[in-house]
């Protein structure tokens, strides 16, 4: 049943413009990340390991992700759910044996795959652009992959939150407003201490995932709390499962 529901959600995406929204998220992150390439002195630093050009680019991408993702993830969740509110899809799916909570989980499985693909595409494209820009110093594979994995986890948890909110509220402006506020929360997290940012899930975890910082001495590497990000993923998944099971009790 769930397998057919997930396949059905992929079929619905053809009319819901899910791919253009995911593409917009990818292009937005890549475009903002490329501002680092135009920074004063960056072209002269591409061959100097001491200037850490890859870390400059990685930090720029991390900032772009927290600026772009909250709003477009809210839009993506809204696109997936609004059709059910408008077309009586909740009742139709329930009469066919698929509860509202199970439908939400199917939507997350299908759309979550798109979110993961978009996040990986962002990371890969920014790395490719860095290579095309002429960066010749050693590529920080571990650091880059660590941040990419963290971004995938935080994006999925935030998407699950917006998907649940869109399913619970017929007025999709609520979710979109939450997405705009999420940008401010994510940006605010960059100015908080690590301990405080832990208490602003999931938006604060964008800041926790940032692997570099710019200081007077230049770009320095940080030690992101990957275990905390992993714990966010586990807790977010458990809460989404619990919330969607409660969603089965609503009257449609």
UniProtKB/TrEMBL annotation:
The chain crosses the membrane at residues 21-42, 54-76, 113-138, 144-166, 173-200, 226-247. It holds the Pfam family ABC2_membrane_4. Keywords: Membrane, Transmembrane, Transmembrane helix. This is ABC transporter permease. It comes from Streptomonospora nanhaiensis. The lineage of its organism: Bacteria, Bacillati, Actinomycetota, Actinomycetes, Streptosporangiales.
């Amino acid at each position: 049943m769930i397998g057919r529901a997930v396949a059905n959600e992929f079929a619905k995406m053809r009319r819901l413009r899910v791919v253009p929204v995911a593409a917009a998220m990818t292009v937005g992150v890549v475009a903002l990340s490329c501002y680092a390439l135009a920074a004063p002195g960056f072209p002269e630093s591409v061959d100097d390991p001491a200037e850490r050009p890859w870390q400059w680019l990685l930090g720029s991408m991390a900032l772009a992700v927290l600026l772009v993702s909250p709003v477009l993830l809210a839009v993506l969740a809204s696109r997936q759910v609004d059709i059910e509110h408008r077309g009586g899809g909740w009742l139709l799916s329930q009469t066919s044996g698929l509860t509202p909570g199970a439908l939400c989980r199917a939507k997350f499985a299908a759309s979550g795959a798109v979110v993961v693909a978009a996040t990986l595409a962002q990371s890969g494209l920014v790395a490719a652009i860095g290579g095309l820009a002429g960066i010749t110093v050693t590529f920080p594979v571990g650091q880059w992959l660590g941040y990419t994995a963290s971004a995938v986890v935080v994006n999925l948890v935030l998407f699950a939150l917006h998907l649940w909110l869109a399913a619970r509220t017929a007025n999709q402006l609520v979710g979109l407003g939450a997405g705009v506020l999420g940008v401010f929360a994510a940006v605010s997290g960059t100015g908080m201490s690590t301990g405080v940012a832990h208490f602003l899930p999931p938006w604060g975890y964008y800041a926790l995932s940032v692997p570099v910082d710019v200081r007077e001495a230049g770009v320095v590497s940080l030690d992101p709390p990957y275990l905390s990000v992993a714990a966010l993923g586990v807790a977010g998944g458990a809460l989404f499962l619990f919330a969607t099971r409660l969603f089965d009790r609503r009257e449609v």
